[in-house]
Amino acid sequence: MSSARVRRQRPMILASRSPRRLQLLRMVGLRPLVRVPCVDESPRPRESGRAVVVRLAESKAMDVARRHPRAFVLAADSLVLVAGQMLGKPSGREDARRMLGLLSGGWHQVVTGVALVRPARSCLVAISRTRVRFASLTPEEIRRYAAGDEPYDKAGAYAIQGAAGWFVEEIRGSLSNVIGLPLEEVRRLLAEARFPLPSLRGPARP
User: Fold this and answer.
1) Cα(142)–Cα(90) distance, integer angstroms
2) pLDDT tens for residues 132-151?
3) CA atoms of 183 and 188, how far apart (whole Å)
4) CB proximity list for 161: less than 8 A, separation 6 or greater
5) Distance between CA 157 and CA 99 in Å, rounded?
6) Residue 68's domain is classified under what CATH number?
7) What's the pLDDT score for residue 10?
8) Is-contact 141 157, C-beta < 8 A?
9) What is the C-alpha to C-alpha distance for residues 22 and 24, in angstroms, rounded to an integer?
10) Per the CB 3.0–4.6 Å rule, which of 19, 28, 95, 195 could disulfide with 90?
11) Containing domain of residue 95, as a range?
């Protein structure tokens, strides 16, 4: 049996509960299985944002790969960096308002680590950085946005593909990275791992 045929028989797993990451992969024709990793996502003392996202992406991918040794396992982790602070997912409304206040009227950086574990258990890693500039938000805009459901499972408390697109004045770098998964890095890692190309037909019609 050819090596290409063997690769086709090995599933791809997305080690994430994020619907945005799954949607992005489906958009290019990939159909991964979804398995949720069990990993402590707390940053370590004096750990940089770059180190956090790379470590957590690797940990998530390896956690799922141990349970599915014949699969290609893809994982990612994202943070927002602003004013020397790392912003993950907000813990509640007050925390979301605090984060939005930090983002208001300036630039921040979205950093994502991506890890791909091959069936041989070797792990490929990439990192993506995107700069985003927010308009100056009024207290009322912050209050209204934080009152909805959108901020609460997103790093930095906003979804650029949702209502928070209203706040974005400029973006430099990968848009898919800000949404949750840098497709250009995923493409590079899959090519390096010799994973079969996706169909590129987009998502199937309902």
Assistant:
1) 14
2) 999 999 999 999 999 999 99
3) 9
4) 20, 179
5) 7
6) 3.90.950.10
7) 73
8) no
9) 5
10) 95
11) 3-192
Q: Report residue 158 CA to chain centroid gap.
A: 13
Q: Which residue has the higher pLDDT, 120 or 114?
A: 114
Query: Using CA atoms, how far apart are residues 188 and 23, in angstroms rounded to an integer?
Result: 19
pLDDT at residue 65 in the model: 95
CA–CA gap between residue 117 and residue 72 (Å, rounded)? 6
* Residues in CB range of 88: below 8 A, 6 or more apart: 41, 79, 80, 155
Q: Tokens 């063997």 appear where? A: 6
Q: Which residues form the catalytic set?
A: 77
Q: Is residue 197 assigned to a domain?
A: no
Please write the tens of the pLDDT for every residue from 33-76: 999 999 998 889 989 999 999 999 999 999 999 999 999 999 99
- Residue 45 domain flag: yes
